[in-house]
Amino acid sequence: MKKIAKKTAALLIAVGVLFSEAIITPAAELSDEVHLDSEEQIENAETEIRQYAETLQDETDTANQIEHAPDDEKATPETTAQEEVIDADFTGFVMIKGEYWYAEDGKVMTSYTGIVKAPTAQSSPYENRTWWYVSEGRLDESACGMVHKADGSSNTWYYVENGKYSKSTGLTRKADGSSNTWYYVENGKYVAGSGLTRKADGSSKTWYYVENGKYSTSTGLAQKADGSSKTW
User: Fold this and answer.
1) What is the pLDDT of residues 81-137, one digit of tens each?
2) To 5 degrees, how large is the angle CA 79–CA 80–CA 86?
3) Which of 17, 124, 170, 197 could form a disulfide with 225 if both were Cys (CB 3.0 to 4.6 A apart)?
């Protein structure tokens, strides 16, 4: 029979006292010597004790760090707009963390990018019948350009300016930035018109030529695309 060293027994006592774990016999009941069958068992016991002590120490250090961390570091992760609890019957724009999001039947529509129309009876600045542009469900009042309806119910291209549907006429690009092509919109909708026009947002007084609904660098005489003048 081999004997475990007294220092190992002491280590067992220290681990049990330090972490209040019922992993060993109480110190008062532990004799000076504990019998093991072989030198290998003694070495294995000492290794396991030290590894367990290190694990407990790491867990204790982590717990202490959390306990003494500033309140802002203890904060739970923020909920996303999609996780916000909304009345199941609600459809329209709702304020979440300082921003307006579009919801249908109580669910924030993060799959929506395009124009949506809010019901008339809701307590938000967007309760009228105007169409507004949302990007992944969030209201974007900076959007300008051509868009589809967010619910996919129409293939028509509509024109928005400052995030709001506008019946302007002129050249514009796609609002989502997916194309650098300039397209022609008339009274707020894309048409495959040809002739002279200005930019829809009024940012330039220059006249541009469009052909079949797109800006063209062709040279020659042309009338106004909207038919407001027969002059060549």
Assistant:
1) 665 657 788 888 888 888 999 999 889 999 999 999 877 655 566 666 789 999 999
2) 90
3) 197
In order of 90, 143, 156, 177, 179, the CA distances from 174 in angstroms are 30, 10, 13, 6, 6
Q: CB atoms < 10 A from the CB of 45, how many?
A: 16
Distance from the first to the final alpha carbon of the chain: 114
CA atoms within 13 A on the CB side of 64: 6
Q: Hey, what are 31's tokens?
A: 């004799």
CATH 2.10.270 maps onto the chain at 81-215
* pTM for this entry: 0.63
Tokens of 213: 């609904």
As beta bridge partners, residue 116 has 132
**pLDDT tens string 141-193:** 999 999 999 999 999 999 999 999 999 999 999 999 999 999 999 999 999 99
In degrees and rounded to multiples of 5, residue 134 shows phi and psi of -125, 145
Rounded to an integer, what distance in angstroms lies between the CA atom of residue 173 and that of residue 114?
Answer: 14
* Adjacent-strand bridge partners of 3: 35
Distances (CA, A) of 108 to 89, 134, 207: 12, 11, 42
